[in-house]
Every structure is written in C-alpha cells, then in structure tokens.
Amino acid sequence: MSDSENDDEETDFYANMITCEDCEGNEFIPDDDELADDETELTNEEKKIRAYKTTCSATCISCGESVEYDNLPWVKMYANYCVCLVIATETVKGKNKLKQCKVDIGSNDDEEEPITVITNDKNVREGDRLVVAMIGAVVPAGGAEEEGENEMTIQKTNVGGVTSHGMFCDESMLRWGNTKNKAIRMPENIELGSRPTRLPPNTIK
Length: 205
Ligand SMILES: [Zn+2]
Prior knowledge:
The protein has 205 residues and is of the alpha+beta class. 12% of the residues lie in helices and 27% in strands. It folds into 2 domains: 3-75, no CATH class; 78-197, CATH 2.40.50.140. A hairpin with a 2-residue loop joins strand 4 (81-92) and strand 5 (95-104). The chain is elongated. The relative contact order is 0.16. The structure holds zinc ion.
C-alpha cells in the first residue's frame, strides 16, 4: 500500500465536519492515531457516529492548526446533552399535562442515579430513548438563529412543584430542524450517556 492511500483514509475521518479558523480548510485528522485504525468493518453511518463521539483533538491537514477536543463544533454545541432512557413516568400531582420522568443518563452521572425531568410531551413513555439537555446545556430559545441572541442555558427548574433537571430535546433544540415540543427518538445503537449525533442518525452518509 502506498503512503497516499493511507493519507486518503485518514483524511476521510473528519471530512467536512470542521472548518479551520486559520486557513478555512476542512480536512482534519484526529490526533489519536488509534481512532483511524480498524475502520474496515464499519458502515459509513457507524464511522460518522464514531467520529462525532471522538474524544481527542484534531489537526488541520493544510496548516497544522490544532482544534482542542472541547472546541470541536459538535462537542461545544452538545456540551451537557446526552442520549438517555426513560425508565419510569408518572403524572405530576394535580397537573394532568405534566409528566415526571425518571431518566437514566448512563455514565454522565457519577453516582449512577437517574435524574428527574418534567415534560409536557404526552407521547413520552417508559422505554423511550431520547436526548436530554441537562443543567448547563445551551439550547436555542426559539425565534431567529443569530448566534448568542436566542440561546438559553438549562437550569434546575421547578415545574408544577417538582424539580426538573433537564429538558428532552426536540428537533429544534438539536438544530436538526424546526419541529418543536416533540421529543426526538434515538436508535438503540447510540449508547446511553453519549452525545447526540450532529445530524439525525438516519440521514448520516
Ligand atoms: Zn488550517
């Protein structure tokens, strides 16, 4: 195998997912070589999911500029977002339209305790795999999408007398589309506690 074939494979790993602030190049390689290995058995969708979950910095191929892990666009945007599982629901006392959900957030919680999330999405049920924006997550606040203007940070909130520790994400909160107030379902191959994918999993090419 020639060197150039090797280069091509590595280039594909982050293809068009990051833009370099210095040279506007969009070909990056992950700084941890292990990630580029052993990809032959993966489908394109699996490769992309893996890339979006990558936990290392990346280097611009054109100019050598490095992007730290925390500054990878999908890491920054989805800080404090995670894929979760609804393990129990009950109606909030005296509030017919509010559901109190016990939510497993995987390894995001050191104590491995489920968190409580209150929702008014009547379709949320036990067993649903959703995305939760936890305390500290920055979500779009609706309206225009000018950066910074219409964002809010999720905080511990009293909803109908119960403390809610997050919000289930709809399409607009994930910046996937415009649909609101309808919690997004995630496929089972995306593990609990991981960040959501940057694009809907079924559209990843
Ligand atoms: Zn660059």
